[in-house]
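Good morning C.,

I know you're traveling, so I'll keep this short. The sequence:
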Amino acid sequence: MAIYFIRHGQSEFNAAFQGEVDPFIFDAPLTSLGFDQAARARETIADLGVSRVITSPLTRAIQTAKTIFDGIAPIEVQHGHHELLKFSGDVGRAPDNLRVDFPDLSFDHLPTRWWHSHADPDIDVPVEPAESFESRIAGFVARLEEIQNEDVAIVGHGNAFQHIIGFMLNNCQIHRYR
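The tokens, ready to paste straight into the viewer:
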């Protein structure tokens, strides 16, 4: 039994981001390079025996999971290991909107607003407090402990995985967590 972490491929936000200036690309999709990175990762995972995939609800993670695992293993969308909300690219979309782009996946179990929210609805990018992020990731790690007797791939995000394993994964890097 193994759990593998896979960071999403390059997103449009990643490609446009310069320092601390937010390019305001909300729920950024993959770039063509990101899709290429995911296609190369697909070649690598064949020998891992992954039987289940859990992806973050952010578009770039879903696109990465589908590129790597469609036809190989079932893909589940779960929140909890989504990115630390600091920039526009980390703002999610409601399940109804995601369902339009990914009709073959289930979003019924997601709350309407599964990403960090702020009391002021006029704030476009409500920065997630560190305590909230840390608590959310701790809950996700606790749920990972429930996974037994199967090889699972978790497709997610740099800051979330870094918080768990202590270093930043490259785009589409595969890391054996357990």
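Safe travels,
E.
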